[in-house]
């Protein structure tokens, strides 16, 4: 009987403990919190402005010919076309992992200009218009002036994001611009002026970094080759031996550009979850 009583007491105690435990709420478990950190991404459209300085060059050959086409004189030299410029750019980037590809177009207004002088030597030119007496042995000075009125490019870009917010890139493509040429010879100042729009090529590179929000800043170098501009005109001056003088020029225009710029990227940073 005593053993039965001890057994019944043990069972009752076990049942009471189970019932008491059932009254407590079961613990609930949740997933670990998901953290989100904004990460800069280069993909998207952007729009911006720039300002800089250029060291341009005109490699020029000027010739003087008779009305019959006979070469009387030729001079070859270089002229610096230096000056400040400014403009704007628009583009689009694609980023895949750390690699960034893009397309960009820009347009610049420039103050790049320069000139070179040469002299038609003694025994070739008469320094006065037809019918006006002058010594045949007098040299005739001439000045060729050139300036780049505006310049634009359409380029591809390819680079590597060395950090999420710092991009190193190379760029290259089409360049085009308008070159104004004027020339004076003898007693006739600015006797001739011509504008030519030329297309060529450009290549360079730069570094661009995020500076806050959707804004980025860059420093960029471009080499530009606009090819050759050519022209000619008849002067009222006479050549020794008779006939009017025609002056002709052929100039190869190149440029070295260093500029700083700022861009606004229209899509914001993406959110990476981990």
Kindly list the characteristics that best describe this protein.
Porin; two-stranded antiparallel sheet; about 270 residues; about 10% helix; mainly beta
Architecture overview:
- With 274 residues, this protein is mostly beta strands.
- The chain has a single domain, classed as Porin (Beta Barrel).
- It contains one helix and eleven strands.
- The protein has one helix at 2-22, and strands at 36-39, 44-66, 71-96, 99-120, 125-129, 140-163, 166-185, 188-212, 215-239, 244-265, 270-273.
- The strands form two sheets. An eight-stranded antiparallel beta barrel has the order 2-3-4-6-7-8-9-10. Strands 1-11 form a two-stranded antiparallel sheet.
- The longest helix has 21 residues, at 2-22.
- The protein is rod-shaped.
- The two termini are 66 Å apart.
- Residues 1-24 have low confidence and may be disordered.
Q: Which overall shape is indicated by the principal axes computed on the Cα atoms?
A: rod-shaped
- Counting DSSP H or I runs of 4 or more residues, the number of helices is 1
Strand order in space, largest sheet: 2-3-4-6-7-8-9-10
- CATH topology name, in short, is Porin
**Spans of 5+ residues with little confidence (pLDDT < 50)?**
1-24
Largest sheet: 8 strands, antiparallel, barrel
The SSE order reads HEEEEEEEEEEE
The number of E-state strands comes to 11
Q: Assign the CATH architecture.
A: Beta Barrel
Query: If you compute it from the alpha carbons, what radius of gyration comes out, rounded to the nearest whole angstrom?
Result: 38 Å
Work out the count of structural domains. 1
The CATH top-level class label: Mainly Beta
Distance between the termini: 66 Å
Strand content: over 45%
What's the pLDDT, averaged over the residues? 82
Q: What structural category arises from helix and sheet content? A: mainly beta
